[in-house]
From TrEMBL:
Gene3D superfamilies in the record: Ribonuclease H-like superfamily/Ribonuclease H
Protein name, entry field: Tc1-like transposase DDE domain-containing protein
Domain of life: Eukaryota
Tc1-like transposase DDE domain ranges (all copies): 109-259
PANTHER family xrefs: TRANSPOSABLE ELEMENT TC1 TRANSPOSASE, TRANSPOSABLE ELEMENT-RELATED
Pfam families the UniProt entry points to: DDE_3
InterPro entries assigned to the protein according to its UniProt record, in alphabetical order: RNaseH_sf (IPR036397), Tc1-like_DDE_dom (IPR038717), Transposase_5 (IPR052338)
Amino acid sequence: MGKTADLTAVQKAIIDTLKQEGCSQSAVSRHLSGKSVGRKKCGRKRCTTRRGDRTLRKIVEKDRFQTLGDLRKQWTESGVETSRATVYRRVQEMGYRCRIPQRSSTGLLLSDESKFCMSFGNQGARVWRKTGEREMPKCLKSSVKYPQSVMVWGAMSAAGVGPLCFLKGRVNAASYQEILEHFMLPSAEKLYGDEDLIFQHDLAPAHSAKTTGKWFTDHGITVLNWPANSPDLNPIENLWDIVKRKLRDARPNTLDELKAAIEASWASITPQQCHRLIASMPRRIEAVISAKGFPTKY
């Protein structure tokens, strides 16, 4: 064999492979010159069986996010005693490579406002009464016609929820842009980092104002086209319902207690719940189409 520069790309690849397997320089030369026929293969004897390798493949497929130590531990528990280096070689031979997991290139953030009343804490009241006692004073419970309430803005994604904003007074374009600046952007940062963002909101006047549209343009954020009067399509409505149901157990007596209970209930929502709701979007769309725009179970 001449100089290394005279080798073909295939021969170079063969040399690299043989060296990685522990072959000596002389064994590599014999292989390239065709003199290795009939000789024993170079390198160490394989320390695992095909059955053991199949077990390792199943372990990897079960959870792609395991560490090398986790893989070795489970493989050992299955009866295969090996080193970390052997585990790594076998996994590589199967075609797996350790990579930083890729996230979706664009994140979807859904938003909405909801009203919470003090009476939510009293809706669970029940009374023991006999037939015909429905109108008896001792079986009636007084209610407040205009209970104290708060308006809340929130956002969610398949990765979880963002921070809540308690609204004060009527929301106009200017105040809405403050919400976007101080609550929506932190939500996007928390849930998606530096990924591109698609943002959803309804067609309320403050949302559809020209100055609000310019705010999104200036911040490089795409706004999802959204049909009017379509609460059935927005999964965040289900989150509001979850929070309101929990408030019935909290029974807040003051506005501060109400806000604290709302925040606690919102914080208890898991990414798994959000993911399931986002995953329901295709079914929601199909249901709305089938109902021809009329209400659906969502």
